[in-house]
Amino acid sequence: MKQSLAIIFSLFSLLTSFASCNKEASVPGSLDAGNTNGNRNPNTTGGQMRIKIGASTFTTTLYDNATATAFKARLPMTVNMSELNGNEKLFNFSVSLPTNASNPGTIQNGDLMIYGSKTLVFFYKSFSTSYSYTKLGRITDPAGLAAAVGSGNVVVTFELE
Q: Domain for residue 144, yes or no?
């Protein structure tokens, strides 16, 4: 009986110690470790970029990941972005960018991402999603973005600051 109580107490102590671990801490090999590909809690030291749409200019903070590095190598560029779903604009590259896609759960107004490996997407409305994307960056202040992009296709210039 004493042996059974000792085992139960030991298991209880072990489980209690696991439950008290910090769930936010990064564990080597986990999805958050290093954040080199910018998906869950991306590192935003990838630099600044301007997005010009007509007379409006939006400052964007790029993430520090391989996708953003490959994207920056293409700048400056001016593209005709197509409307999709009343919440996003997209452009298809002719070649793939490196990716590390994950599902963000919620898209935020001002998110700049890659869908698949060739589709540049920026979002001008927030919504829930079941799709996976690789994060490139985020517009610092997306106020006025929906008005700037309008409801159809739009010409957009991306350039480093």
A: yes
